[in-house]
Design a protein that fits this description.
The chain is an alpha+beta fold. It is built from 10 helices and 10 strands.
Length: about 300
């Protein structure tokens, strides 16, 4: 691939509603025809998600770029599910384009729970330990044949330098709002931190919305669209977006993260926070305050 890879796409999202899902299910999975269909409250960005009956969900990629993950998920999620200590989505059926919808789509078993937050986690240290155990088990799965970083997952698990241009543009947009010298030092340390090059499985988007909590405990991890095999440092961003203090230390210790891995993880968190903050300033929306808080934490660790 020549030129700079497209690492932060914002494609136009395909409009989809419950009526479209009913037509697709009736035409391609008639055994589920007639089950009620309703949109979920928080569907995320990459997929438009609907409940199908009481115990299934339908996920329609919202743009062609996100549809690249469908085949990957159907190939690998059943393999990963057998080796992980928490529940993950397992596809029940794969749909084809139809009824005016242009992409492959999926039916999954519904996993219940609430997105993780500081308010609904009973014990942050225990939560961090459960997450570390999950990520460690994921890394132990045989990576042979797994998907390497690429456009299918926006190069998660690849070199941080892939995102250097985005970081520099974000810093320019945030001039006067951020300590540019301190941020640049965090970024320099991250991109220089060595990796032994041995690929392992990673999730790619360990964010609060993809960690499900029931009765205060972590019970499931969802949305593997950015998963792959490569450098697992990208999975450490959660250490600064949700965890702090003892819980952050528990995650680091549970993963036996050496200084180089931790430094690269800080780089991933910094890239995400800077681009989120700059994007919020451009659009007038988004959570600029949360992104700024992450940047402040990363600087404080220097």
């Amino acid at each position: 691939m020549s030129g700079t890879p497209n690492v932060d796409p914002v494609p136009e999202r395909f409009p989809a509603d419950a009526a479209l899902v009913r037509r697709l299910v009736s035409a391609q999975s008639p055994r589920w025809a007639g089950l009620p269909v309703r949109p979920v409250a928080e569907e995320g960005w990459d997929n438009r998600t609907f409940r199908l009956g009481s115990d299934m969900s339908v996920r329609l990629p919202s743009a062609a770029a996100y549809a690249e993950a469908v085949d990957k998920e159907h190939r690998w999620l059943p393999v990963l599910a057998r080796r992980l200590p928490l529940r993950i989505p397992v596809p029940l059926a794969k749909g084809a384009p139809g009824e005016g919808y242009p992409h492959a789509w999926s039916v999954y078993r519904w996993l219940s729970g609430e997105p993780a937050s500081r308010e609904n986690i009973a014990d942050p240290v225990r939560f961090a330990g459960s997450l570390a155990a999950f990520l460690a088990a994921l890394r132990r799965v045989d990576p042979v044949g797994g998907p390497a970083p690429g456009q299918h997952n926006w190069f998660r698990g690849g070199p941080l330098l892939t995102y250097d241009g985005e970081v520099r543009r974000a810093l320019g947009a945030l001039a006067g709002r951020v300590r540019a010298d301190a941020v640049a030092e965090v970024w320099r340390c991250a991109v220089r931190a060595p990796w032994d090059g041995r690929p392992v499985w990673f999730h790619g988007d360990v964010a609060p919305g993809n960690l499900l909590v029931r009765d205060g405990e972590l019970t499931a991890v969802i949305d593997f669209g950015t998963c792959g095999v490569g450098d697992p440092a990208c999975d450490l961003t959660i250490a600064w977006t949700l965890l702090s203090g003892e819980s952050r230390t528990a995650l680091r210790d549970g993963l036996s993260a050496d200084p180089a891995l931790w430094a690269r993880g800080r780089g991933w968190a910094l890239w995400k926070a800077l681009t989120t903050w700059a994007g919020a300033l451009r659009s007038g929306g988004g959570d600029a305050a949360a992104a700024r808080h992450v940047v402040d934490q990363l600087i404080a660790e220097t």
